[in-house]
Amino acid sequence: MPLRRRRRRPVCAARSIPRPEHAVLKRAYRAYRDSYAFRDKIAIDGFDYPLKSFDPVEELIRRNYRTTISGPCSVAMSAACSPNSGGKTMNKGFFGAASLAAMAVAMPAYAEEASSDERDIVVTAQKREERLIDVPQSVSVVSGEALENIQATNFSDYLKLVPGLQLNQATPGFGRLVLRGVNTGGVASTVAVYQDETTFGSSSGLVNGAILAGDFDTFDIERIEVLRGPQGTIYGSSSMGGVLKYVTNKPDTSAFEVRARGSVETTTGGDESYLGSAVVNLPLGETLALRASGFYRDFGGFIDSIGTGGADIESDINSSKSYGGRASVLFKPSETFSIQLAAYLQNLETDASNSVDSDPSTGRTLYGRLSQSQFVPEFTDVRYRVYSGVVDADLGFANLVSATSYSTLSQSFRGDLTTQFGALIEAVFGTPNDFFQGQLTRVKRFTQEVRLQSPESDRFEWLIGVYYTRERGLIDQDFNAVEPGTLTPIAGLPLLGVATINSRYRELAGFANATIHFGDRFNLSFGGRYSGNKQSAVQVSDGVLAGGPNALPKARSSEDVFTFSVAPQFEVSDNVTIYARVAKGFRPGGPNVLAPGAPPEIATYGSDSLISYELGLKAETVDRTFSIDIAAFHIDWKDIQVFGQVNDFGVNFNGGKAKSDGVEFTTTLRPAQGLSFSLNGAWTNAKLKDDTPPLVGGLSGDRLPYTPEFSIGANADYEWELGGDTTAYVGASVRSLSKQPAGYDLAFRIANGRQRYLPAYEVVDLRAGVDFGRYSIELYAKNLTDSEGKTSLEAPANIPFGAAGTGVIRPRTIGATLTAGF
């Protein structure tokens, strides 16, 4: 069976890829539509169709109109010919196809490229399919093809395509996402992560939800949507900074597909990496289809151990593996009803963190460029499991969607704490030792959402729904002293420390959203969500470091909250819209599991909330050779959640106020066929307005953690034909970040009188390849200039000799990829 050719697109934009049998027809229609861009409707076969929201070609195909024409079908039109017609019968959708095709040929080359390849970008940001330009809020979209073009597999690979999105991470699977500077270092998330209809991670700070963002592998993804600003009305709690949404490829009942990719990489100063993935789409009749994919990534290490404390000197200690897959079944007996069941699993295994020892005052790397000291070998093991079912029924007056999911996430690690506790154990028990902490974090989450939404209308559209989630969290810790340079427990020592925290989180919410269309140009969208949550936690501990056996009383909390959004929008034309948006977001509070000696007034910490004010412009030329999306925002944030230490135990606090101001933009230029440029950037001024609680170490005027003031991303791509079905392409990407503040650190401020910062850095990537139709070959270079970018900074208490652990990006990596499909 011939390969369903995936024409390469530049990384600067997302696209909706037409099915091959409709490609010629769509190309002709879009050329026709673009030439009449300022008309409200066109007449076809006696029907009037609005150009803005309707594709008459697809409607004619859906209704299966047929007609007879004289003469055989041309090669260009053969996809629409009936296989039994002998070349005589065609879909009526090919109205005047010859004249329309001629019209497309007569247009300038760059306009033809835009017309034939640039369909409207469709998103589900408001839980209904809409053109991106029609959504009255700031949304970025990264297509699956763009992800493959840049060889993306995880968060860190596609940040360059999304303005203002930051990642604080030193170990795969332990990442904190930040949008618009909404981050104070608290333990609950401010960016919600979704996979299709399934929310993932935790809404609770009791299991360190901020670092549980699902870093899903990006193979076989249709697109990634990034919604900036608070999304509490539709997406609920812990989305006060925004939402990152993975939209996966759905099973297709119409075509068989097999595709596989394999890559090999070499990293400067490190080991080789090997990556493989494959997907199959299998129609099982006209109403049933199965889609299954799998991936395996073996990333070579690039950080060395200097052998502190008796550990063997080792090279490339931070190797990691990521492997898993997705399976989905679609049952669609009619155009008005479907059921989709899906399962996803992924394991992330890392031998050591991607961090180096650095000077805590300057951030400069110690002991050589990429090295760290270890008394005890470390590891992490992260496992994702997501199971979901979605029922979609068209009831005529409205569409009913029921989304059910169950997910589990587990993180286990061994962390070296020799510097913090080794001397104490030796002083008390008289034995030299290495000391480490083992920890398991587990979240089990069930969610159910039911929503009813109106059909698309040019007057009034509405959506109502209910949402329920139940989480069970576990943190299980143990503290161990071992013989130096080994993992052998020291005989004769008493139990040093164990602790277990069991937590529960429940939330029930109702929400509604509506859009009123006042005429053809002015729209008003508004919505609200009322939710209530209840939480509880129990801690049991024992051992010398815990002060002996201790079972704390169950800690409880509950709260109710209302969030809202209002967004007027004015359509200057079909290609230019201006909007404003005011929205409220919140993050749940919860109970604190109090450390011995902690003040009783911090038994609970409250929710924090913010109100965001946004003004935006989205525009593109009629021929789509130029587009721009720009937004300015101001955020008022109160009762901010922050994290501090009480007797070496972490405690959540509420602080005062913070604010964030900024501008974000994305612009794309396509001056000639096959050539495209894009530029995205963000200026973010996010600061504390009040001092934090004294134990945290933040002062009024301090910048909020892990948000650079300036970030810029630029991309350029050029594709040309080599003859026949063969094309070639080249591309380049650059990302630049200004210096950014690290987390608040009271000890550092006392010693240095200022906030800690990570230095600025730039990353350059190159790519090139040849596509032969059935297979393609690609070469690429990531971090071409071998930049030493730094992404996180730990407090120095746990690092030998007072050094700070600093997360770093992968050094220069050169790779090659072979893709084949049928």
UniProtKB/TrEMBL annotation:
Protein name, UniProt field: TonB-dependent receptor, plug
Taxonomy, superkingdom: Bacteria
Membrane topology: Multi-pass membrane protein
UniProt GO cellular component terms: cell outer membrane
Subcellular location: Cell outer membrane
InterPro entries: Beta-barrel_TonB, Beta-barrel_TonB_sf, Plug_dom, TonB-dep_rcpt-like
A Pfam family reported for this protein in Swiss-Prot or TrEMBL: TonB_dep_Rec_b-barrel
TonB-dependent receptor plug domain mapped to chain residues: 132-243
Gene Ontology annotations of biological process type: iron ion transport
Organism: Sphingopyxis alaskensis (strain DSM 13593 / LMG 18877 / RB2256)
